[in-house]
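Changelog entry: the G-protein beta WD-40 repeats containing protein record was regenerated in this release. Current contents:
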Amino acid sequence: MLNLENAKKKEESTIKVMSLPLQQQCFDKNWILKLKQPKQINHLMCLICGQIANNPIEISCPEHEKLDELLIAGENCLKQYLNNNNNVCPVQPHDSCQYVKSKVAQRQIAELNVICPMQFEQSVQQSSQHQQTIMCNFKGKIKDLNDHLENSCPIKLSNCWFKPFGCNHTCHKSRLNDHLISHLQFHFDLVIKSIESLKQHLQAHQNEIGQLQLQNEKLKLEIQLERKQSEEKITLIKEHSQAIQSEIEILKRDINDKIKRIQDNETEHRQIHANCHKSLQRMKLQQNQALLEDNDNPSPSLSSDFNIDLFRFSKQLKTFSGHSNVVWSVQYSPFDGGRFLCSGSSDSTARVWDVETTKQIHIFNGHSGNVHDVKFSAYNYCNYRHFTIFSASSDKTIRFWDIKTGKELQVLSEHTGPVYSIQFSSFNNGRYLCSGSGDKSIRLWDIQTFSSLNILNGHTDYVWCVEFSPLQSSSNDKDNANNGVGVIGGSGYTICSGSWDKTIRLWDVETGKELIVLEGSEGYVRSVKYSPYEATAGGNTVYSGSDDKMVRLWDIRSKKQTSIFKGHTSYVTCVVYPPYASSNDITGLGGNIIYSGSRDNTIRLWDIRVNKQFSLIKGSDSEDSGIFCVAFSSPEDALKSNEQNKNNRIEGNTLCYGSIKGLIRLRG
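Regenerated structure tokens:
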């Protein structure tokens, strides 16, 4: 029960209980006992102060079911106790106790008969001081006390009528007239003094009004002058507008004439373009077939089924220089046509680059450790038109940056180990963020409120990579705000995680439960990726890259490994899909080719139909020394500029990779 300190409070409460307002304080039991027996009120006592509970609160919780007595406390006492004791239950130490107002006890207390509380206090004082004074004979119910004290109690002290003028005298009502008569001159002087003070204030206000009137007249003159000047400017603008309108009409006629001439020639140009395109396609097909015949690891089916450009990404276009250590992560901006590129590095910085000029837009220096992952936030752009990135670091934080101002906006610091990977949800426009950490956990965040929604525990070593399952839709409509159902809009979606415990685990987004454990990797799992071409099935295929130098294909439905791709000579750092025009193209090129990057300084292309290497891109041995991340530009802009492309082949998209020596390369 209560400790010795609470017992001491009970003793002090007999003196202090009347110092609070009647509506808040617990009632002095000695005052109640003037007209009641102890057994009649014992069940109404506050267990905190030991007095009769005012506004009684019943402490009702399964923790106290074995206790026979009624557990109540005065509302004000309970609030003070909880504030001073970190919300710990006053009965037994535990959290999350339940408190309910006791209407039955409240009615019983309200019906108790008592004497006037002021008479009670006066009696206590007289017993020690042996004084005689005015008596109050009130005996009634507690619920009637307020009316008695306000309107009829003879003991109640009254303020002097001249208190507004400065007299602070208080006395009983019966003695008020004596005070007024005996201090008549004093009160008169107070009134005169107050009137003089009011006159001074009035004069000061009148002076202030005069000053304001002068300022007002000055402002009126300024407004009139500005109005006249504005009218003159408006007249000039109208004249210029009329002249411009005339010029516009002339230009319209010229433009219409030119449009007509263009339309007249458009059919002829379209036919010429179509013929040229067909000829070019035939030439490329012949080149592809010739190259496939000479390839050490041929994929024969490609030459007959697909019209692809084997030279795509063979040319190095640009180099981004600035990082001084390993580039762990790169990503094109998913909005504005991929105009920007973000990157994270072991030099403790996140950076944003202009893809066209290779210029560095911003350096974000807030982290104190390796920046392992960076992502653009599509949610903040779609909802607020904010260009922002999130960065994850070995300093145990995730930071939120404004690209426009270069300022840090928010820090998520709940992880207790390095944060190695972050990923935005494919649903709800990317409102939710998952993160994998060296503390062996995965966290789910709401980036609108910056709150942690769930913690997924199960891995026994570092969680190095995380991935959301693809959007469950048959289209690529970016506005998928209505796609989700459930508590956070993630019903039916999963998170895939790879760990240094050599396992891959799948988790239910909505419940946070572990669904599947995929075992078979012989090294740390460094990268996982859902197949984006099975979105309507919720993503049934997962690819992984690990320290055993292999890329693996897993079937989620059978929980088995279905393919192994061997060829890398060092650990695999990343696996990615190329961005083809149709995300549902599971029979074409998009669903059959995957890319993997490695510490062996190569990016390898794999044909999953024959489980063989299809092609290889090699980095610079002296300047790169290893490829740690790969990203593709979006194909959407290329499709818009290539409306005649009937094979869903992307013309103009680029590949970007980050190297161990800090350089970022752009290939096309």
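The longest helix spans residues 184-294.
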